[in-house]
Amino acid sequence: MADAWDGTLEEWVTSEGHCSAAGMAQVTDGAFYAAAPVANDQGWGAIYKEDHAEDILQDDGVTTKKVTINEGWQLKLLMDTGKTPAGGVWFAGEKYTVPQTDLKFEMGENTFGWAFAARPKKGVHIVSTGNQIVAGFYSEEKGQNTGNCKKTVLAFAEYLKGIGY
After folding, report:
1. H-run or E-run covering 81
2. How far apart are CA 9 and CA 134, in angstroms?
3. Which of 153, 130, 135 has its CA nearest to residue 18?
4. Are 56 and 7 in contact (CB under 8 A)?
5. pLDDT of residue 1
């Protein structure tokens, strides 16, 4: 079933050029099961990395501790709570800061969970339909911007909600 969603994700989210990559995950575990662009698994390389150990700065602001990061679980926790989970939010082995979340984002007749995460020169808009999580990534180096990426991801989330996802 995931392969079927790869093409749909590419058509809706990455084909127009407003998002450089995209992924879909279940809200139950946050693990991506579909990615775009499809060719040469480019999407997977841009959005996901297997569990990895990272040095995480502790509350004292000085010491670090090795922590195993499960990117899907961190994504699930973010979308469940609207807060950055311990260890941070990671995609493809890169840590993102989360300056904005709104778990009751209204658009038309729908309410979504929404979060924005960023790194220098790139970011990701994350939208939960209640069943699925869609993440659309943009890169300023590819001429993309946050506004167009957000609109694209929200349009796909509306489509998903409309078909019962």
Report:
1. helix 71-81
2. 9
3. 153
4. no
5. 42
Whether the full predicted model's pTM is greater than 0.85, yes or no, is: yes
β-strand pairing of 94-107 with 89-91: antiparallel
Under 8 Å between Cβ of 124 and 99: no
Q: Do 32 and 23 meet the contact criterion of CB atoms below 8 Å apart?
A: yes
pLDDT of res. 58:
87
The series of mean pLDDT values per 10 residues for the chain, 165 residues long, is 82 97 97 96 96 91 93 98 95 97 95 98 98 98 98 97 92
Q: Give the separation between CA 153 and CA 117, rounded to whole angstroms.
A: 14
Spatial CA neighbour of 1 closest among 132, 93, 156, 114: 132
By the 10 Å C-beta count (0-12 exposed, 13-18 middle, 19+ buried), 91 is classed as buried
The CA distances from residue 144 to 5, 19, 139, 150, 153, in Å, are 23, 7, 5, 11, 13
